[in-house]
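To whoever is on call:

I kicked off a structure prediction for a single chain this morning and the downstream step that reads the tokens threw a length-mismatch warning. I double-checked the sequence; it's 425 residues and nothing unusual in it as far as I can see. Pasting both halves so you can look.
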Amino acid sequence: MFGKMAALFQSSLIFRLRRMMSQIWAKVTAYSLLSVVTALAAIWLGPFIPSDLAFRIGADAAETILNIVATSMLTVATFSLGIMANAIAGAADSATPRATPILLEDRTSQNVLATFLGAFLFSLVGIIGLKVGVYEDGGRVILFAMTLLVILLIFVAFIRWINALRTFGRIPDTLGRIEQAVEDALERRLAHPYLDCHPLKELPDTAQLLPICAARSGFVQHIDIHELQALAEAHDMRIWINRAPGRYACSVRPLAYLQISEMTEDLAGKLRRCFTLGPMRTFAQDPQFGMIVFAETASRALSPAVNDPGTAIDVLRRAMGILLRWQERADPERLHDRIHMPGLGPGDFLQDLIRPIARDGAGIVEVQHVLLAVLRDLALGQPDVFTAPARVQAREALARAEAALTLDSEKAELRAIVSDLLDEA
């Protein structure tokens, strides 16, 4: 039962809704609509307020405050948006442009901007209502109370925004967000390593199968496995996924191969719609993408223009902390018995992470020391998973370092770090 519910939540519709709700425009729009409804609600709630209470409070007290809020909030929202844009641009320059989607999805900045714009619209609607006379005395009291609540929300948003600006967009903050995104994505994927399908170690003879190609080129961001299984059952076919999440699909790289007696154009279109393609990779079903983002950040830090080996070392240690948690389920569920899905490759994870850093930091002994130590520790901590790929990457990294370094003592130091790992080969 729970497995089927999990499959439903992996549908393309849920994926698109989650992606839409993570965008800043969705939250700003929701807050703006709520603010307008709140301002108009005072019209309907006004008759429930006693007239003597309206007289004691002062029915006209809200207008002055609303004018202040209206004249200040739009400026504050525009200024805050500029700060956010500059911080994200700085993160793209100092880390990698692939990290900017994570910053754009930051809930604190989204809530703050939405609060400022919502407060502006609330005050604007309130002022218009007061000027045209739609609020009676009771409605003005309600509007006054709501205005005080909005001011409280603005104050809380200011405090949160000031606190967030201390670190927002800086390298440690960006790396922390990448680390959390990769950790969450890897944990979800390892809980369902084959997305509840049959494991696919190697494709069968594709000459006997029917390929399904994408209508346009792009990275596979999501696969609606539940819908694929339903189509496979309805048309008595088996499906071998060729382009797993994170892989690039085009006319010569089919999305999947099918074993089916008869194919129609309508069915082919339904199968293609189960694959969500986009211009770039995402973390949703593709934790390996995080290793690429980590490596790009480290490579930029190791460039002569930046010359910041400390960031590269930080990247390696954060990535190691994530990979040491690698725990695949011994017997994963197979809810989708007509679909064969490739799993995660530890070797691909290490190659995407280690190779760029080993290349760009070949002549920096401090970086090579940590890099080789990370490979050794991964092999010790997860021997069944990382020993073989760590040995391959250690050989390549050591060869690059020995070609770039000049001191024999430094070369000997690096060899000693991975001596046990390489001697076991």
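Update from on-call: the warning came from a stale cache, not from the record. Cleared it. Sanity check on the structure: Confidence is low (pLDDT under 50) at residues 1-9.
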